[in-house]
Amino acid sequence: MKVLAIAYEVKDAGELAKAVKEFNGEADILAVSRAAEQVNEVARYSKRVYRLASKSPYAIYKALENLVERGGYQLLIAEGYRNLRDALSRLAGSLDLPMITDAYTIRILDGEKVLVERGFLSERAKMKVEVPLPAIVLFIPRFTEPLEPGEEGEVIELAPTEGPEKVLDVKPKAMGDVNLEEADIIVGVGRGFKAKEDLHLAFELAELLGGQVGCTRPIAADLKWLSEDRWIGISGKRVAPKLYIAIGISGSPQHMSGVQNAKIIVAINKDKSAPIFKQADYGVVADLYQFVPILIQKLKEKKAKG
Amino acid sequence: MSVIAVLVKASLNPDMVRAEPDGSIDVSAIPLKISDIDRNAIEEAVRLKQRLGWKLVTVSVVTWGPVSARMKDVRLAVQESLAKGSDEAIVVADDALTPGDQTLTAKAIKAALERSGIKPQLILAGEATIDEVTSQVPGRLAALLGYSYVSFARKLEVEDGKVIAERDLEDYVEVVEAPLPAVVSVTQEINEPRPPTLLQIRRASRKPIKTFGLRELGDIGKPSRKLLEIKAIQARRKQVIIEGETLEEIAEKLIEALAKEGVLQL
Ligand SMILES: Cc1cc2nc3c(=O)[nH]c(=O)nc-3n(C[C@H](O)[C@H](O)[C@H](O)COP(=O)(O)OP(=O)(O)OC[C@H]3O[C@@H](n4cnc5c(N)ncnc54)[C@H](O)[C@@H]3O)c2cc1C
């Protein structure tokens, strides 16, 4: 069975190669966007790598259409970046292929079908689905550990096709320098905070604990109080700290799916019927403006005592 | 007259999931509700309709059956968009299309538009729906119709036969221009949806809803996806509420509990 993996970031190549290796397959790789910029690293995961120096969904869609038609690929895999969701959904429509997103495991049955486990109901549930090949599967980011790199394969350059959508301007987002995926302790802030200035409470708590500050989608995307690399949840980061302290967060499934791998979850919320208390290990029903300063004070005392 | 179509899905409500003790979930027992981000798409469509003077049509495909048990929820979702300013609605409902998959949903939307003799200049949709979160129906539809496609728009304008939008990507925002006809998916941040007023809701009951079954649509295929198992992700959390006479006492108890768990580094 011929597999084509699409790498958007360099790290995708190793992760996708690992997934393919697990079902005893081998994949050619299409490197786009940042993976195309560092194609030599990508080439260490496959004998044949196509390089498309573009992140335009249309260009990726057309390149894939061409590769699938000529190369006879039966399975296309990638991770679910927004530009790839765009490109691959168009490809799925144009070639009439089933497409499964947010997968975390994959199996091939009799070389004819794929069996995938994926999140469902905003990640309240897990769904096992089966679709016939040829098919497209998009994984959640970092769904597996990367494979060890090997010899560099051959690189074939592809020319991007221009589409109807023209880019007029590109504005990079302001990003902090946090790496929530690596943090042991995360203090999460939600709309229970009334003003941006008040977030200093969360930062002070996080610093005291040697942790980082993360947030819900509205705090980053709507209010822009924090940079988007702190956004946790189904459309943001998935994190796995030892301790997650959620302050003024209601506990929506879209947010909580991002912290389901936390070892211990603490919720501080003034509404005793907030859904987060059912998804937390320890809950404190209190106004954050009263409770967090006291918690900080007590932690400081404790620290001073050693 | 130019037409805007807005896609609306009656989605499984993730807040109303009840699992059996073994974790299994009966999907037919989960009520449907309008998918949250569809509200943003409707809000944006109504704004554009008012500015451009175009007609607005809602299109909805029933993915979760059985149809007879679901129509009440579907009608509620569709009526919300009619109340907000859509002029009419097209609903595709057929048990043979449930449980639906995204391949079929996109084909059903295309067929229903064609059968109604509607060629929208602009099709708006939410970036994803709350039950499956796949973000793939708008892109499929664009490819099937040969329209341009702008995904994840957090800002949108239509002028001189084109859309100009800000696409919101992981680490950058991209301003794009695309010719009409176009499909645009919008993010939650594009606007603040307002609930319809009582008067709007009352008026909506007089607006036409056309329902299509498979027979009217012609052969669009069958779902190819098999749902083998649906299980709840069990929240195995302790759910201890820490109580005390004073907040100081609660804070001390919390610190103690976390120290015992071995998750505090002081
Ligand atoms: C497709 C889709 C994807 C999404 N992706 C994400 C995602 O990746 N991440 C994400 O976070 N969200 C996501 N969302 C949004 C999500 O549904 C919720 O809207 C969001 O998580 C709510 O954020 P919140 O808890 O900060 O705010 P709210 O739900 O408004 O909760 C605020 C909480 O603060 C409490 N509170 C208020 N004042 C105080 C006080 N003084 N002291 C203590 N507590 C107080 C309130 O009781 C309330 O429980 C997504 C939604 C959709 C539809």
List the helices and strands and how they pair.
The complex is a heterodimer of chains A (306) and B (266).
Chain A: E1 3-7, H1 10-22, E2 27-31, H2 33-37, H3 39-42, E3 48-52, H4 57-71, E4 75-79, H5 82-95, E5 99-109, E6 113-120, E7 125-132, E8 135-139, E9 154-158, E10 166-172, E11 185-189, H6 200-209, E12 212-215, H7 217-222, E13 243-247, H8 253-256, E14 264-269, E15 282-285, H9 288-305
Parallel strand pairs in A: 1-2, 1-4, 2-3, 3-9, 4-8, 5-8, 11-12, 11-13, 13-14, 14-15
Antiparallel strand pairs in A: 5-6, 6-7
Chain B: E1 3-7, E2 10-12, E3 32-34, H1 36-52, E4 55-61, H2 67-84, E5 88-92, H3 102-115, E6 122-126, H4 137-145, E7 148-159, E8 162-168, E9 172-179, E10 182-186, H5 198-204, E11 209-212, H6 214-217, E12 226-232, E13 240-241, H7 247-261
Parallel strand pairs in B: 1-4, 1-6, 4-5, 5-11, 6-10, 7-10
Antiparallel strand pairs in B: 2-3, 7-8, 8-9
The complex binds flavin-adenine dinucleotide (FAD).
